[in-house]
Amino acid sequence: MNQPQFQHNGMERNQNEDTIDLKKLVFKLLSNWYWFLLSIVITVGAGFLYNRYATPMYELSTTLLVEEDKVTSPLNENGATANVFQGFGVMNSMRNIYNQMVIMNSTPIISRTLDELDFEVSYFAVGRVKTSERYKEVPFFVNWDEDHPQLVNAEFFLTIDPNGKLHLRVKGENAELYSYSDDEAIRKIGEFSFEKDFEPGARLSTDEFSFTILLNERFDQKALNDYKFSFNTKNSLLKKYSTALSVSLADKETSIVNLTLRDFNKQKGIDFLNKLTEIYQLDNLGKKNDNANRTIQFINTQLQNISDSLIVSENQMASFQSENQMIDISLQSQQLLEQMRELDNERVALETQNKYYHYLKDYVQNNQELETLIAPSAMGINDPLLNSLILQLNELITEKSSLTSIRANSNHPAIMRLNAQIESVKNSLLENTTNIISQSDIALKDINLRIRNFEGQVRRLPATERNYVNIERRYQLNNETYTFLLQKLSEAQIAKASNIPDSQVIEEARMNGEGPVEPKTMMIYAIALLLGLVLPAGFISLRDFFNTKVVSEEEVEAITRFPIVGHIFHNDKEFSSRTLVLDKPNSPATEPYRAIRNKLNLMTKAKAHPIIAVTSTFPKEGKSYNAINVASSFALMRKKTVLLDLDLRNSKMEEEFDLDSNQGIVDYIIGKATLEEITYDTKHPRLKIIPAGSIPPNPSEMLTDERLLEVLQKLKEYYDVIVIDTPPVGYVADLYQLNELIDTNLFIVRHKYTHKVALKNALTEVEKHQLKSVGIIINDIQRGRQKYGFGSYGYGYGYGYGYGYGYGYGHDYDKEKKQSKRKKLTLEEDV
Question: Do 503 and 100 form a contact (C-beta atoms < 8 A)?
Answer without folding.
Answer: yes
